[in-house]
Fold this sequence. Notes:
single chain, mainly alpha, 2 helices, 0% strand
Amino acid sequence: MLEVNGTLIVLVLSFLAFVWALNLVYVAPVAKVMESRSSKIEQDLSASRTLREEAQEVLGKYELHLADVRNKAQNTINDAVVEAQKKRTSELAAVQAEGRKRIEAARTALAQEKTKLIGELVDSEIQIVDEMMKKLIGGAAGPSLDRGKVQKAIEEAC
């Protein structure tokens, strides 16, 4: 069977001393480093979660601010468009009024010119009719034509 002698005890004691020395020299420092790395990683993960939450909060605030700025810009654009349309309408009304004034002035000038030309035509027409009557009838034509009737006839013809 198994003999227990001094060599076996020395071998067991030297093995235990080797395991204790190995634990003291290698395993304990490595375990300590692994534990510190694990805690560092946990701290970094916690910090990154916190930073991510802060970043999400800042991003949300930025998006709200951006939406607000866009709304303000759109309102400014809409106000400018409305103002431009008002200005355009008022300028267009002024131009139309000026055009109407010019048209009315032209109509008045044309009416005056027409009246003047009709007046000149009345005299010429009376002379022509008198000459025609003299040539057709011979001698005196009789009573002269009424200037008002001739002018009325010419105005109706025009």
